[in-house]
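ok trying again, last paste got cut off:
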Amino acid sequence: PETKPETKPETKPETKPEAAPDLPSEKAPSAAVEKTPSNLVELVQPVEAVDELPEAIDGYEGVTFDKLASFPYEVPLDPVTNRVELVKLNAQIPERIKSLDKKPVAIRGFMLPLKVENGLVTELLIMRDQSMCCFGTVPKINEWINIRMAGEGVQPIMDQAITLMGQLKVGEVLENDYLVGIYEMEGDKMIGPLDL
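nice, full thing came through this time. structure:
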C-alpha cells in the first residue's frame, strides 16, 4: 500500500512590526496633512499675486499690503462709544504704519467699486487680493483701503491689479460707532496694470 507523505499545515513565519524611523515630530507630517481630500481640490483656486511696487512712483512712496497687513488687529464687535476704547484700538497699529499717515503713497491691489457715476468709479475699496470679489472671503481689516477719488473718477478695472496714488490716512474709521476700517485714502490718480 502506498503511503502519502505527511503534510504539515502551512504556517506563516512570524513577522515583527517594523519600527518606525525616529523623526522629529516637525519633520513627520501626518497623512491627513500630506493628502488633500479629493472633494476639496476643485474648490482651491489660485489668487493672483500682486507684483512688487517700485520704492517711489512720481513722488508717491510705494507701499504694499504685505506692509499694511503685517500686524494682527482685533476688531471689536460692539460699538466704540468712548475715547478710551478708541485709544486701545489705535494702540494695535504699529508706529511704522502710523508713520504713513497723511503721506502720499502708491498702493497696488484689486478694485471693488462702491460708487459709480457716469460710468466712472468715484468711491472704491482697493484690496490685497481678489478673494472678496471672486470667492466672498472677508479680508482682514488691514487688507483694504477705502478710497474716494478726486475729480470725475476712474475707469472700473476689477480683474487685474491696479495702482492707486493719493494721501493715505491711517487710523480707525467709524460709522455709527462701529469700526469699518483703519485705512482711507484721498485718491489722486490710478495707473493700470500696463502702465508700470
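cool. The first strand starts at residue 56 and ends at 57. The two ends are 102 Å apart (CA to CA).
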